[in-house]
Model the fold of this input.
Amino acid sequence: MKLSTVLKGINSTKDIDNFLRDLCTPSEIEAMEERWEVAKLLYKGDSTYRDIASKLNTSTATVTRVARFLYKESNQGYLKVLKEG
Done:
């Protein structure tokens, strides 16, 4: 069973959190949460890359990488979720 299928079948936030804690290291979860925060700020569009990096205490490389996936890659995963949220 694909991971995306498993995640789709989990019905509560608590169960998703517990599953992710079992699946990922704390630093992996933190990195994913950081990327998500970067994506939300980029989508909002009122901050520079440097402002976002400073606000979230992350690198401009992380902000640039998230921006690439948000705006240039064909997956459109970030964009779809942000538009629906």
